[in-house]
Amino acid sequence: METTTREARLAALPKLNEINREIAAFQRADTRRAIWQLINTLVPYGVLWYLMYRSLAVSYVLTLGLAVLAAGFLIRVFIFFHDCGHNSFFPSTRLNRTVGFWLGILVFTPR
């Protein structure tokens, strides 16, 4: 039985090497991509906050619907915060600490 498992692992090695080659570009932090990710998350999140504030005069149900969308963006902000905590969102440790601090304020989570 052990021989079969060992053979299966050896047979999977070429596939793993191919996968590793394909994902190698995503294993390093990229400042431009990180900044773009922040922009396309924080801007819609801010817009949703504004719309929620304005929609209070119209309908609480509409506000609740917008809050569900905003919650999705807040989860994404938390993911960025988490990556900054592991120093993997930006190549710079200093930038990870600074951005992580401010994102932590948004998600009410200490660094």
Describe this structure in words.
This protein has four helices and no strands. With 111 residues, the protein is an all-alpha fold. The protein has one domain (2-106). The model has no long low-confidence stretch (mean pLDDT 91).
The value of Rg in angstroms is: 21 Å
Shape: elongated
- Beta-sheet strand percentage? under 5%
Domains, number: 1
Number of helices: 4
What's the total count of β strands?
0
**What is the average per-residue confidence, as pLDDT, rounded to a whole number?**
91
Percent range for helical residues?
over 70%
Q: Which key phrases capture this entry?
A:
single chain; 111 residues; mainly alpha; 78% helix; elongated
